[in-house]
């Protein structure tokens, strides 16, 4: 992802071939990240496992959240919706790979299966999150473009991480059920954190 990119040429690229191509590429990427996460969970332990999982989580969240909006050059609701469409298609692509391959090659541990081994709840949660992240990521990028005509993926992701960290701290301090000083809490906090970052990015933008 470019650290700063001038928006030029066509915007809101939502033709079907572009959406399908983006969905396939992103779905394949998601499959690779999940495979690496499962291998880290199986082969590592203790602080080394936590560090590896944290790095892989960040490596996965950034492209899934921002690449669809960059690919569609989201500027209006058209490009934002196209990015969400890429996310939804990518989720189905990943889930197909998951059922056919990943669940059958023996990398998922019993602990991993408790998270991802039941298609009846795991798959719906995946496609909802897989659509939510690109949708708000594209919205955040569109807000950047509306403010100064440029997008910055690192700034967008950094803002989302900052809000996610704040949400994680708050839910732990107030004793939210299941919350703790751990990676799963931060991972879940990224969802509301991204929403807050998107709201924050819209402040001060003049609406036509």
Provide an overview of this structure:
By secondary structure, this protein is mostly helical. The protein has one domain. It contains 7 helices and 2 strands. The chain has helices at 16-43, 46-72, 77-100, 110-116, 119-148, 153-173, 183-202, and strands at 5-6, 150-151. The chain has a two-stranded antiparallel ribbon. Helix 2 (46-72) packs across helix 3 and helix 2 (46-72) packs across helix 5 (119-148). The longest helix is centred in the middle third of the chain and has 30 residues, at 119-148. The two termini are 29 Å apart.
Straight-line N-to-C gap: 29 Å
Any idea how many domains? 1
The assembly state of the depicted protein chains is single chain
Strand count, sense and barrel status of the largest sheet are: 2 strands, antiparallel
Radius of gyration: 17 Å
What is the count of β-strands? 2
Helix fraction by DSSP (H/I, runs of at least 4): over 70%
Order of helices and strands: EHHHHHEHH
Question: Class by helix and strand content?
Answer: mainly alpha
Report the uncertain regions.
1-8
Q: What average pLDDT do the residues reach?
A: 89
Number of helices, where a helix is a run of at least 4 consecutive DSSP H or I residues: 7
Secondary structure layout plus pairing:
Layout: E1 5-6, H1 16-43, H2 46-72, H3 77-100, H4 110-116, H5 119-148, E2 150-151, H6 153-173, H7 183-202
Antiparallel strand pairs: 1-2
Helix pairs in contact: 1-2, 1-3, 2-3, 2-5, 3-5, 5-7, 6-7
């Amino acid at each position: 992802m470019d650290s700063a990119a001038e928006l030029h040429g066509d915007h809101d690229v939502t033709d079907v071939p572009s959406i399908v191509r983006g969905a396939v590429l992103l779905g394949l990427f998601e499959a690779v990240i999940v495979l690496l996460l499962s291998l880290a969970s199986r082969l590592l332990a203790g602080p080394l496992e936590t560090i590896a999982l944290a790095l892989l989580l960040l490596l996965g969240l950034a492209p899934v959240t921002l690449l669809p909006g960059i690919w569609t050059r989201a500027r209006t609701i058209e490009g934002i919706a196209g990015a969400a469409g890429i996310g939804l298609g990518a989720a189905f692509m990943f889930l197909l790979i998951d059922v056919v391959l990943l669940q059958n090659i023996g990398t998922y541990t019993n602990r991993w299966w408790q998270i991802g081994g039941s298609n009846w709840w795991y798959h719906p949660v995946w496609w909802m999150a897989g659509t939510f992240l690109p949708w708000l990521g594209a919205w955040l990028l569109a807000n950047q473009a509306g403010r100064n005509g440029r997008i910055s993926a690192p700034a967008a992701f950094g803002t989302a991480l900052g809000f996610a960290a704040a949400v994680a701290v708050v839910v732990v301090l107030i004793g939210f059920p299941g919350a703790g000083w751990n990676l799963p809490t931060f991972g879940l906090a990224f969802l509301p954190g991204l929403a807050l970052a998107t709201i924050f990015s819209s402040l001060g933008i003049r609406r036509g």
